[in-house]
């Protein structure tokens, strides 16, 4: 039986989890003052010195306490509920290096079980691996917070960029959205 809707791929960090304020706090530890706009992943990665990237990424994604403190992206829970209500099939494809910690965060946020589980959650290493996984799974729609990731998703027909702080320019290869509500409306 064919699904009514094409398979949707979701990114975790910057789409479901919001690291804005934690990035700002961590940047201050390294003497940088960054605006919310500058916490957008591709922009932030260009601003941070190479020697600070490892410690900041550890604090955001792997530190036993800090990683669990990441709040949900505004509207994410309601958005996931709406996707389920619409019977929109979705998978999570994330570049989290520590899948165990990511699952702990999803459990702590109440998302593991009701929305995500071992059947629809996948962790890959590199940006281009997201496309390999998306192709393997048959993902036709994908939302990410990084234009550099969306550029790698050659097999995905419709791409969306979560850009709440208007950090990126328009691009013909994706549609920019500023919120989950805007994203859900764009899926119609």
UniProtKB/TrEMBL annotation:
One of its GO terms (biological process) is deoxyribonucleotide catabolic process. The lineage of its organism: Bacteria, Candidatus Liptoniibacteriota. Belongs to the 5'(3')-deoxyribonucleotidase family. InterPro entries: 5'(3')-deoxyribonucleotidase, HAD-like_sf, HAD_sf. It comes from the Bacteria. This is Nucleotidase. Pfam families: NT5C. It comes from Candidatus Liptonbacteria bacterium GWC1_60_9. GO terms for molecular function: 5'-nucleotidase activity. The active site is at residues 11, 13.
